């Protein structure tokens, strides 16, 4: 399966529902993660991705969810080194499925970028995923670049640009069939242009009816960058359950979640959804037996309130842990 074949046809299952595997990365990182979780829990700041959906039950359900996805012909899986052992579980779940039937995305974590260990990180991913190639390799976040007002702005190379040179090397070796980025805004993509020989083929960013990211979507479409929309359902936020959305769903005899995923597809995006419940996955199995009209698409676009469920990468200080105290970044979102 190639990247260009997915457009308009596929949705992706997001695997970020796992607690880190016990001692998976060694005892010290595990203890640190464990303490961090307790701290987040006590501060009631566990709303971000790995706090909200990663529960013991969800972790246990990753393998059944992936198996149900394959049965439902959803064969695109979004993973990362940062998803607490999800790569290993994904590999276990896909053990009996021919490799060419699946499209596997994984990402280079922030720490590996800072340490200049992109290649090592990728090697670990291949090992955990039990494969010799990935279909799409992404930089997880645009770490780190000087702000425009910083005097280093004109002459220092952002960490992500250095990481990108290794990504290009991996791409040329054939071990990643495509390379791209995640959480890159226009400013990051424009900056990357100065250093790249191969431009990103995909950008994965937060996008849902409450935050449609019009400019970034248009930029990607103009530059031939395939958009993967994460938090594509915005966790079915109750603001999406309004009369207008219900009317569209009723007109097609579908659920609002199905309508939203279809809206992404018709807008040329590949939506990534998350669930810890295998039974929900069959609901999303066939989304090609109906089409939304132009006015319905426009109505869903008009739900936009620029609400962000995840931090805006333009305002993150990547030298700090962006997930601790992440709530404050929300106030800086457009
Ligand atoms: N690149 C990045 O930086 C980045 C950041 C965030 C996410 N992601 C990727 O995107 C994936 C999905 O993100 P997400 O989990 O925020 O997406 P999401 O699909 O918008 O939200 C998932 C949440 O929605 C709930 N849900 C799903 N279908 C529902 C329905 N029909 N009715 C009510 N609730 C429903 C799920 O609960 P149940 O478990 O109860 O179904 C789950 O808590 C992640 O796993 C990850 O792969 C990437």
How would you sum up this structure, described in words?
- The structure is a single chain.
- This protein is of the alpha/beta class and 334 residues long.
- It has a single domain (3-330), classed as NADP-dependent oxidoreductase domain (TIM Barrel, Alpha-Beta Barrel).
- Helices cover 41% and strands 10% of the residues.
- The protein has helices at 3-6, 27-42, 49-52, 56-71, 86-93, 110-114, 118-129, 159-173, 186-193, 214-222, 243-252, 256-266, 278-283, 294-301, 327-330, and strands spanning 12-14, 76-78, 103-108, 136-139, 179-182, 202-206, 226-230, 270-273.
- It has an eight-stranded parallel barrel, surrounded by four helices.
- Helix 4 (56-71) runs parallel beside helix 5 (86-93).
- The longest helix is centred in the N-terminal third of the chain and has 16 residues, at 27-42.
- The two termini are 36 Å apart.
- The relative contact order is 0.14.
- Residues 14-16, 49, 53, 78, 140, 182-183, 204, 230-236, 257, 272-277, 280, 310 line the site of NADP nicotinamide-adenine-dinucleotide phosphate.
